[in-house]
Design a protein that fits this description.
It is a multi-pass membrane protein. By secondary structure, this protein is mainly alpha-helical. It has helices spanning 10-21, 23-29, 35-41, 46-74, 76-95, 100-128, 131-145, 147-162, 166-183, 198-209, 212-222, 225-242, 247-271, 277-298, 303-319, 321-330, 336-359, 365-387.
């Protein structure tokens, strides 16, 4: 550990980083079981309710893009606290929504504020850790964050069984309030602040993008989020409407699929002791491709086949997240906040595109998911094989 905290120990600091990184899955997965019910209560279409998901991701991504560079000037802690206040206000607005328009607008505010937590968490990892240790910490944080998508839909389904969907957003308001209080105890991790104005700080995004190694890897790795987020958006409709499950059954199946995101990073930690990280990334693209083929031909045959196929795909996608994130961060000596913002922004932006595309194919959700996985696995896998050993890619 390169930088110590006075309030947080080594393990509790990693846990805190995981909490900050858990805002995207909690904010999306917790209310997935409620989506079909919310359509009826708010008298809205499936596409309108899904808009609260896709727009959340877009503005969360824009928030990341804004807060990361700004944290280079004002520091990680002030930016984090400001973003959490906006997230709390947005969560309360969602809970009080009386129509889908109010829900979507509140989700936009919630998303923009939540972007600060994601940007700061990634930047703090590089502020505090280096080399192989940073790669291990990223894997641990990612594996801990997975608890959120595993538990969230189950908890959301439990709430739906006994309480209103509004309680889900009251819970998010409470969770973010506790996170705010804990964040007040963080020590600033940024050593050297950017001396220019805010606009110049945001302009550092362009400087990072001019780095050919960073940009090339960013284009390859960000695409993996497209089929994963498409699955998240379509999962409730596949399991509940397609396979005729209850909201509680859906929560269990989704939790099973989300376990792949836990297995992936932990499997990477184990494999990386004997296998090079770049080989693991290559294998991950192969797994995504094969899973896509299986989905197209067999995914609709039963919920168990679909769940097992998606589990393999989720393992493949999540297994390459720690080494890909570390490889991207290693391309930059400075501008950590901007680099972290671009990493998270592109992943969420591609995820929102996946959510939008899957909403256009309501009658062929499973086969569309499979095609997405095949395209990402083949195209990105080939691109990765072409660039991974080029001289402009740092080890």
């Amino acid at each position: 550990m390169e930088s110590k905290q006075h309030f947080f120990g080594k393990k509790s600091m990693i846990a805190m980083l995981a909490v900050l990184s858990a805002f995207p899955p909690l904010s999306t997965d917790l209310y997935l079981p409620a989506l079909p019910h919310m359509m009826k209560i708010l008298d809205a279409s499936q596409s309108a309710v899904n808009l609260s998901l896709s727009l959340f991701l877009i503005f969360f991504a824009l928030g990341i893009l804004f807060w990361g560079p700004v944290s280079e000037k004002f520091g990680r802690k002030p930016v984090l606290l400001t973003g959490l206040v906006l997230y709390i206000i947005g969560s309360v607005g969602c809970a009080l929504s009386t129509n889908v328009t109010m829900l979507i607008l509140s989700r936009v505010l919630q998303a923009f504020g939540g972007g600060a937590a994601e940007a700061v968490a990634t930047a703090m990892v590089k502020d505090m850790f280096t080399g192989r240790k940073r790669e291990s910490v990223l894997a641990l944080v990612i594996s801990m964050v997975v608890v959120a998508p595993v538990v969230a839909p189950i908890f959301g389904a439990f709430i739906m069984k006994f309480m209103s969907w509004r309680v889900i957003f009251w819970f998010l308001a409470g969770f973010s309030s506790i996170t705010f209080l804990l964040s007040t105890q963080l020590d600033e991790t940024l050593k050297d602040r950017f001396e220019g104005n805010v606009l110049h700080s945001i302009g550092r995004l362009g400087v990072v993008l001019k780095n050919p190694g960073f940009s090339a890897l960013l284009g390859v790795f960000s695409m993996a989020a497209l089929p994963l987020m498409a699955f998240i958006a379509a999962s409730a409709f596949i399991y509940i409407n397609g396979f005729g499950m209850s909201e509680q059954q859906y929560g269990l199946y989704f939790g099973f699929n989300a376990l792949g995101s836990l297995v992936g990073p932990l499997l990477f930690i184990r494999l990386s002791k004997w296998v090079h990280s770049r080989t693991i990334i290559t294998a991950s693209f192969f797994i995504i491709t094969v899973s896509g083929i299986m989905l197209v031909f067999f995914g609709a045959s039963s919920p168990n086949v679909f769940a097992l196929t998606m589990l393999a795909s989720t393992i493949g996608i999540s297994m390459m997240r720690p080494p890909s994130a570390n490889l991207l961060l290693s391309q930059q000596d400075g501008d950590t906040g901007s680099a972290a913002s671009l990493i998270n922004f592109t992943a969420l932006f591609m995820g929102s595109i996946g959510m939008f595309l899957i909403s256009l194919e309501a009658d062929a959700l499973i086969s569309t998911l499979g095609i997405m996985q095949i395209l990402v696995g083949v195209i990105c896998g080939i691109a990765w094989l072409i660039i991974k050993n080029r001289s402009f890619i740092r080890s």
